[in-house]
Amino acid sequence: MDGEVAQHIEYVPFGKVFIEERNNSWNTPYLFNAKEFDEETGMYYYGARYYDPRLSLWISVDPISNYDPRNRENYLNGKHNGGVYNSYNLYPYGYCYQNPIRLIDPNGKQVDVTITDKVVGYTDIRLIVPNSIKNAPQTMQVPLYQTIVSDATTKEQSEYAVTRDALWAIKGNKEHIFVQNSAFEPRTEVGNYSGIIVDYPKNSALKAVLLLNAKGTNKLEASLERTPPPGGIIGFASSVMLHVGGKYQRKDGGTYITGSLGCSGIYKQKDGQFIGGNEAVTDFINDIQGRQSVNKDKSLQIQYISRDAVNWRQNIDSVNSKTDE
Fold this sequence. Notes:
Elements: E1 7-11, E2 17-22, E3 36-38, E4 43-45, E5 50-52, E6 57-58, E7 111-126, E8 139-151, E9 157-163, E10 167-172, E11 176-181, E12 190-199, E13 207-212, E14 219-221, E15 236-238, E16 241-244, E17 247-249, E18 255-257, E19 264-270, E20 273-275, H1 277-295, E21 300-305, E22 313-317
């Protein structure tokens, strides 16, 4: 075709064709969201059901809106995208929760990341300390929790580990430092979120997974026991990510150690122990993106299992008060 444009199409948000230009030498039937368009019915075929872009509606109900033992997931058990506890799922004909600018509705071939409540090891994270406190330790030990990456297409599982605690010093004296934990814990027993891959931290060339709610924003409902960091709102957490854990290197060659006000640090097992840093998070992201490539679907579902007990507040010895025994 000698570099000429064969087909030019623009859409309104819900998929109806707004502008279409063809040179008639070759035209693809795969249009909006790369789904096949049936010219006779004016509908798109998504695998599980047909979608009518003129009405902005599916022509049949969501196949997991009712219980069917053949389906791996359903809304009745509250697990998939919040299930019946997410009001948007109570309208099984709606497309993308009526928000097609932010969300897509693929065909169920998403990659799943499950953050469990099973402790598999321990590591040190940076204790976030204000300048007014001079005698606090730089790091504190926290548990690592089993994390599983899977997808329905390859049926393979990979295991990682993440931190779930977010420690910051709020005040101190000569003997003790008072530490607050702003760990992100879902408000329900199981929290279900979508995820997108973003660049983070700055100047590191690394990537992270940002969690989004059903509306496509990063404001998540959190445990009411959580005390948010300054400027936060009780019962909510924003910009929660799965990012590099432990010590990592930035582009300037410097080594830094991660802290957190609600995110999780990623670790992997190597030579019988868990390591964080650039290698672990790079392997984690590559694992996800590799599965997305196989699935031909960039959907990513993140599931957080609530912990039975979280140490929200604690007193620790100040650096100056420690003595050798």
